[in-house]
Amino acid sequence: MRITSATFVKGVVGTDAILAGEKPQIAFIGRSNVGKSSTINAIVGRKNLAQSSNKPGKTRQINVYLLNKNYYLLDLPGYGFASGSQEEREWLHKVINWYLFRTEYQQKVLALIVDANVGPTPDDVDMINALDAARKNFVVVANKVDKIKASEYDAKLQKVREAAGFHKVIPFSSAKNIGIGELIEEILK
Ligand code: GTP
Ligand code: MG
């Protein structure tokens, strides 16, 4: 399966007909700055479809993209964003939870992006538990493997696998284009 087209549709922060439609939804979630937007760019083979930034908190709405004219891919704001005002953090948290855990919104699959070099954080573990409790279908993308020292690679990947439980873990690098085929396969199959 290949991604043959990808276009930006709109940014969403609340109830929207697009989320209640027929097209299958694929949501990209994860802590702030782990590389959700970069991962989307990597799989669609475009540098700037989703805006990425080295400043955490870049994505502030749910950006919806149409893939292969058939699927909605959703780039969510990051959780665990430590800077910014209290209201700002609460607002982002609300947008994320509203979309993920309202039963009227169903995702075909979610890609939970973690920073494999940093390792799964308590926020990541909380999210994995919440997704499991809501019986969501998700894969864990271990992003930024290019940053891991060779001598630490196995141990760091193992940590991600332990946190992921029975969910598939895909070693990935948006910077070095590692894992792209496998991630596309998982989200489109
Ligand atoms: P928010 O929208 O703030 O939640 O962030 P995000 O998760 O969308 O992250 P984004 O894609 O904006 O990337 C954050 C930073 O990580 C940027 O500086 C990227 O260049 C960098 N980055 C993303 N993926 C990789 C990777 O695979 N390897 C390396 N070395 N850096 C990466
Ligand atoms: Mg982003």
What does this structure look like?
There is one protein chain. The chain has 189 residues and is an alpha/beta fold. The protein has a single domain (6-188), classed as P-loop containing nucleotide triphosphate hydrolases (Rossmann fold, 3-Layer(aba) Sandwich), CATH 3.40.50. It is 31% helix and 21% strand. It is built from five helices and seven strands; from the N terminus they run E-E-H-E-E-H-E-H-E-H-E-H. It has helices spanning 36-44, 86-101, 122-133, 153-164, 180-188; strands spanning 6-12, 25-30, 62-67, 71-75, 109-115, 138-143, 169-171. It has a seven-stranded mixed β-sheet, with helices on both faces. Helix 3 links the parallel strand 5 (109-115) and strand 6 (138-143). The longest helix has 16 residues, at 86-101. The relative contact order is 0.18. The model has no long low-confidence stretch (mean pLDDT 92). The structure holds guanosine-5'-triphosphate and magnesium ion (MG).
Characterize this entry briefly.
The protein is α/β, with parallel strands linked by helices. The protein has helices spanning 36-44, 86-101, 122-133, 153-164, 180-188, and strands at 6-12, 25-30, 62-67, 71-75, 109-115, 138-143, 169-171.
Mean pLDDT: 92
Topology, number of strands: 7
The set of bound ligands, ions and cofactors reads: guanosine-5'-triphosphate, magnesium ion
Class computed from helices, strands and strand pairing = alpha/beta
Distance between the termini: 8 Å
Largest sheet: 7 strands, mixed
Output the CATH topology. Rossmann fold
Strand content: 15-25%
Proportion of residues in helical segments: 25-40%
CATH architecture type: 3-Layer(aba) Sandwich
Shape by Cα distribution? globular
What radius of gyration results from the CA coordinates? 15 Å
Number of domains: 1
